Amino acid sequence: MNRLRKIFILMFVLIFSITLFSKDKVALSIKSRGDTRVKGGDEEKYKNKLKVGASLYSEDKIKTYKDGYAVIIFLDDKSQLKIREDSEMEIAGKIKGNVISKQITMDFGTLKANVNPQKKGEFIIATPTSVASVKGTGFWMVVDPLTGDSIFCEEGEVEVVNNESGEVIVVSGDQTGTSTPDGNVGVEDTEEGSAPTDEEDDGVGDGDSDGNGEEDTDGGTEESGGDSEPGEEETSTIRIEFQNNDGEIKTLRIEYK
Amino acid sequence: MKYKYFGIVLFLLLFIYTVNGQTLYHSPPKNVYANSSVTIEAVIESAMKELNSIRVLFREAGQDSYIEEEMYGENNIYSFTIAGENITENGIEYLIIAEFKDNSFVAFPKVDPYNVPMFLPAKKGFSGIGLENLNQQSSNYGINAEAIILSPEKDEIVAAEEVLIAVSLFNTPDVDLNSVIIKIDGRKLAGGIEVTSDLITSRPQNISSGRHTVSVSFKNSKGEEYTPLIWNFNVVRTIAEAQSLFKIRGNVTTNSNSEKVRGITRNIQYLRANTQLSYSWLDVHAKAFLSTMEDPQKQPRNRLQAGFSTTYFDLNVGDINPNFSEFGLKGKRVRGIEADLKLRYFNVHFVSGELNRSVNGYISESPDTLADGGGLAYKRNGYTYKRDMIGIRPYFGSGKYFQFGLSVLKARDDTSSVKKELSGILQGNDISINMDGVKPQDNIVIGSDMTIALDNKKIVWKNDVAVSILNTDISEGAISLNDLDTFLPGDTLQDGLITFGDTEIKINQIPVDPSDFSDFLIINENLITHLPILPDSATGKIGVKEVLNMPGSAFKSEAKFNYFNNYLTIRYNRIGSKFKSLGNPYRQDDYQGFRISDRIRMFKNRLFLTLNYDQKRDNLSGLKTTTTISSAFNAGLTLRPGVGLPTISFNTMQFSRDNDAEDIDTTFSVSQDNEQVMRIIDSRRSDMTIRQSFNITHRIEIAGISNSLSLNYSISSLSDGIDDRPESHSFIATNSSMVGFGINSNFNFPLTTMFRVTSNINESSASDNPYKYISVKFQGKYDIIPNKLNILGGLQNTNASGALDYSKNGLFCGGYFNIFENHQINARINFTLINDKSQGEKYKDYFVNVSYRYTF
What we know:
The structure holds two protein chains of two kinds. By secondary structure, chain A is mainly beta. Helix content of chain A is about 10%, strand content about 50%. In chain B, strand 37 and strand 38 (about 460-470) form a beta hairpin. In chain B, about 25% of the residues are buried. The longest helix of chain B is centred in the N-terminal third of the chain and has 12 residues, at about 1-15.
């Protein structure tokens, strides 16, 4: 009976663990330069360097330091985020059928989004100040929790709701929208030179790419290791995917040093 | 005759505007889609006057400046096709202006068309390709996969250390993960490939610099092969090298139209090319539009433009549409150069070029014989002088908080650009040639503008003021000091004195010669200045008010407030009766008015209420016999309760015009037959137009089919408020109503359909028989290969009865084919059978369009 109980508890823990780590794979890192790190939603510290080619799971967090830069791309529609230095955000996605509803929770920093038209899902960028809803557009977003958000729209439209006042602005091509912590919003024509520029275009960045090309190739198992936080021991992660007959995938992540 | 019939149809459909015998018929197009071209058509009927030009000015809704294009046509029917790239989901605003030889014009919309243009909402493109070019297959075998190339992009320049080959299988669920093969330049990668159920990635090492071809092939679980993904990319040694390279993109489109409309055939071809190059801080762009409709006897149809922009300096040459100043030059096409120096605190905007090119026109075939042996006189008409302009606007401040600008704009016709003698007819002793068309003009506009923005632009206050000087005929050049000797009426003696009344001024005592200023302004008897400034009748002083009230001045002040979920705008305009800018020739003049509008957001932006009131009064200088006050009130309510619930909108508009004429004038004259003719003229005006519309749209899903339902109902009426008109007075009162229902469906498989039925009833006091019509349209589109090969087809039927009795049955089909990803061929064929029972005639109309587009 005790043995049966142990087996039952072990199965429960295993199932619970799988459930706990059942995050959907939603995006891929296609560029990573300088000090750019990633951590799972349940991890406390940014121990792992973001590698080119690394899969990103829902609720993974990315942080770029002073010289960091990353480009991530979503798997369902090729929507892209370019993340500049000194930025931090969580990438969350929920798979519904053949689309991913995406929500980026950005604490601070600068990103450029090239969002392809969303078929059924949604693309939301939430900041401490605002929530931006995107249907298909290209725009820059500069987020500062103290001074608020600036949205530099290049094409298409971005609808921004201010969290404080609930006011809504629609920022269109060649316009800049502002949303401040005290509830104010505004839209004006973008001044020449006021929008951020893409590292890919302006030559910023040290070109420190971490392409070691050492990923496993055994399908279903992915190892993501890398540089450690200064002064800390390197941590690596193994993700194991389980797929049932319905095609549903659960992932177990194991960290080791 | 056929076109007269066509014009009547258009009139009955919706709109008709008549000014002094000139009539502009226009029916706004329906079902406008973003990124799809739309044709604007107008019919001009003018029994009295000769048309000089007809132009359409359009812009993306909400933008400031217009793009101006000339409409072309035959037999009084004119059209212009606005390219799809100019039509976004914001909709499009446009106006049509027909200008006649005597400088009069008629416009659509008639009232203040520049400021209140016609608005066309644009629907999301029916053929909307959601994810453009995601599938970049280039082979013709295998099952089509929904795989997406993630990295590298096609033709991307990537550093060797950053090469990542990645393909998403997110939308391709049934892939045998062991079947994946990646080849680079034909060589299979032996290892380093990571395959999961939703992703294929590989990071090839030691890849050399240069161009490479990658192919990714895979099979499904049954062993059937998917179409492989094949694309090219370029590798450079370092990231820095990749960043320093030029980036170029653009497209070239050729289009060929052939159509037959009521027996008249027309063929038009055009080529359109756009390209953009970027290198770090520099962006270079170029555009070209070349059409077979280019005609040296008309204003340019072709468009050429090139330029570059940087943070501090922009330069454009070719056909440009500068947004230079509110009153001087705003949106009109200029063929020349535009430069903008932007140093933030001090900036300079400069424009120079040609507003009109010279057109020779024609000469009368049979001359008039002048009395008293004066010989033969020929008439020249249909010509246009070359009109050059130059403008400079230094401005201070970026506009974020403050901007102040000063502008000077000068435009002058080149009198030597049109020769009097034409077709071998030379002036001589017995032959004279008279230029009977538009006279050459000279114009200066001096203006100032100021913008103040406060509280993060929640308060914005903008002011514009300008004065103009116009010379209405410079064909004889400037007057000289010697000419002044005999300039004044009655002073015919060449005696070195200017004599008026008892006063005499010696010519040699005048310190300046007017002809010395001819480079700046040609001064002669045809000069209209902004003087006189009339002093205040009570105080006798001249202040700001008196300056602003000058006939040659224009003033605009606008304040915007964005507080408490209200977006309030208050605007005051005053355009003097003599204000004229040749760089902005279609602006309504001689009126003052104000506009108050508010857009209120309620219930967390679920409910929007829009209120507008606009009033204008003309005849500022009292030169007209009557003064007309026009008022427009518009209210709109839009309810968007949220996902799963219908969106409802209601709009009402009331537009009235009243003048101060109180009496009926009666005049008597003697005809050529010595008969007494009595004319009764009723100049009183008190008419009102009311329009109301109701729309409801709802999206529902039935059996997995996503349907968008829409119901529209609108009514419109024009009525006369004066009931004691004389019998001879003609006023056409109208009533119309329209109801429409449509359903757009997206099926589970790649089929989308559209069905719409519209019914319209038009009643007119000019006819006892109301005109009714009902139209039914069905269209289906099927993606044979998603994003690559698509076909569409449909049917349209219209039956009309009443004042006009006809039926129209149309069949159309078309599609597009993407070849090798960069190349797209589009084709469309329409065939229409018209049975005109009123005229007893039948027509077989067709329209064939083929286009090819290359994107790079």
